[in-house]
Amino acid sequence: LLAPTEMSSPSLKTGAYILIGVGALTMLMGFLGCLGAVNEIRCLLGLYFTCLMVILLAQIAAALVIYFQKEMLKVELSGIVADLIEHYDPSDEDKRNLQDAWDYVQTQIACCGWTGAKEWENNEILRNKSYTEYPCSCSNRSMDLVEGRGFCSLEDRLNSTATYADWPVHEQGCMDGVEEWLKDNLGIILGVCTGVAVIELLGMILSISLCKNIHSEDYTKVPKS
């Protein structure tokens, strides 16, 4: 879990709360939709339609916020990652999940730090070492990636004057790596989002159709005077 100082971004907090709310609403929506369709209950189908519409509008709003506030989000993420790197400690079990997640990002994207490897020179543990170490997840050597987390040592352990430029790590920062990944996979991301939106629209159409059918059936059952 994130400590209060690590979750100082209001935008990220809001985003997390929105995701939790949408997840809970989706579970409730699925239950109501099944119950309404099986038992032919119009009010539940109407509620199902409303929930789908709210989720669709929330997704559109989230996309607009990300698009128009991307620079602010980038700055906030930069501060969070900088704080994470500065206080990164492999022995701290309380932050194990968060640190493992960041190690995974650096390993998969082949990057180091948010803007570059120099940020790791601010790490409290690395600054106090009598010999040079560097983050294993930043390494461009396969032997270091086997460890995957924590710190690795230079072969010349006595070289205490080495800087980040002497580390066998990736030069690219993760910010640039993430942006490149998004550009390379933009078509897939847009396709998935479009597919989800189409499914939601179909669900709304089907719920309306069921409501109309139930209404017509109820009308035909009414005895004529």
Automatic annotation (TrEMBL):
Keywords: Membrane, Transmembrane, Transmembrane helix. The keyword Membrane applies. InterPro entries: Tetraspanin/Peripherin (IPR018499), Tetraspanin_animals (IPR000301), Tetraspanin_CS (IPR018503), Tetraspanin_EC2_sf (IPR008952). Gene3D superfamilies: Tetraspanin. The keyword Protease does not apply. The chain crosses the membrane at residues 16-38, 45-68, 188-211. It is found in: Membrane. Its main location: membrane. It is a multi-pass membrane protein. It comes from the Eukaryota. One of its GO terms (cellular component) is plasma membrane. Belongs to the tetraspanin (TM4SF) family. This is Tetraspanin. It comes from Rhodinocichla rosea.
